[in-house]
Specification:
Blueprint: H1 8-25, H2 29-32, H3 35-55, H4 60-83, H5 90-119, H6 136-146
Length: about 150
């Protein structure tokens, strides 16, 4: 039993894999063993990369970068399936592409978070000061000058 829970992206990638498996079952025979196999393999690769990126902390930026590329390839295959009319309906395609975009959004956020950490290795970002355009004394002197 692990003490750390899987990140939300891994759960969403798992949901995407299950939904793609069910969608491919309904594909016509012509697309089931070509495009369907590609979709299933790509969805499995996305899930595996999520787990690998989560567990291999020393190489996490590399795996997250690989994950974003894998998600982009999966989205391209989904769009190709829509153009070939392999899905039962447009609604089925739409639900899959939205889920893939959600996984991609999570991966992009994860990547940006890692990029920020690598730019500031101490993890101590100095807070920005509020910009003060003028002080109270300057306002009084300007008001007195106008009179």
């Amino acid at each position: 039993m692990t003490t750390r829970q899987l990140p939300e992206i891994a759960k969403k990638a798992e949901r995407l894999l299950i939904d793609i498996e069910q969608a491919v079952r309904g594909f016509p025979r012509y697309h089931k063993y070509t495009l369907g196999t590609d979709l299933r393999n790509q969805a499995m690769a996305v899930l595996r990369l999520c787990h690998r990126a989560w567990r291999d902390r020393s190489r996490q930026p590399h795996w997250v970068s690989e994950l974003t590329w894998a998600i982009d390839e999966l989205k391209l295959s989904l769009q190709l399936g829509s153009q070939l009319r392999a899905f039962r309906s447009f609604r089925q395609f739409e639900s899959l592409i939205r889920l893939a975009e959600e996984v991609g959004r999570c991966a992009g956020g994860w990547r940006r978070q890692l990029h920020r950490k690598s730019q500031n290795p101490q993890g101590q970002a100095q807070p920005e000061r509020a910009q003060i355009l003028s002080g109270r004394a300057a306002s009084r002197s300007n008001a007195g000058a106008k009179r």
